[in-house]
Design brief:
four-stranded antiparallel sheet, 28% helix, globular, 108 residues
């Protein structure tokens, strides 16, 4: 849950941004991929829309949505790479947080 909830919010925010801003003709494709690579996971949210203009600086952005994505990625110790050469592609790499279950703890 410590990882799943922030990831769900990140996906929601990135898909919402694609739906709002990426498709000037109203049509396009949004792709969500999740892969396990050794002890890491890679989440990719991409669209084939018009792309984002300029470089994205998470430290100095007017977009509350992108600030939220950055903050949640930090919360799960993830890295974010953005490619705007063909549409917009966010690649988020993270490790699942392991929680040891102590004796007698209810895990239902």
């Amino acid at each position: 849950m410590d990882t799943a909830v922030p990831l769900g919010i990140i996906i929601n925010e990135l898909v919402s941004n694609s739906l709002k801003y990426a498709f000037d003709k109203g049509k396009g494709t949004i792709t969500i991929e999740l892969q396990k690579i050794n002890d890491h996971h890679k989440l990719v949210v991409s669209d084939d829309g018009i792309g984002m203009k300029g470089e994205i600086d998470f430290e100095d952005t007017d977009s509350l949505g992108l600030l939220l994505v950055h903050t949640l990625a930090e919360q799960i110790n993830a890295t974010i790479e953005i490619d705007t050469s063909k549409g917009t592609r966010f690649e988020i790499v993270f490790q699942e947080k392991n929680k040891e279950i102590t004796e007698g703890e209810d895990v239902r």
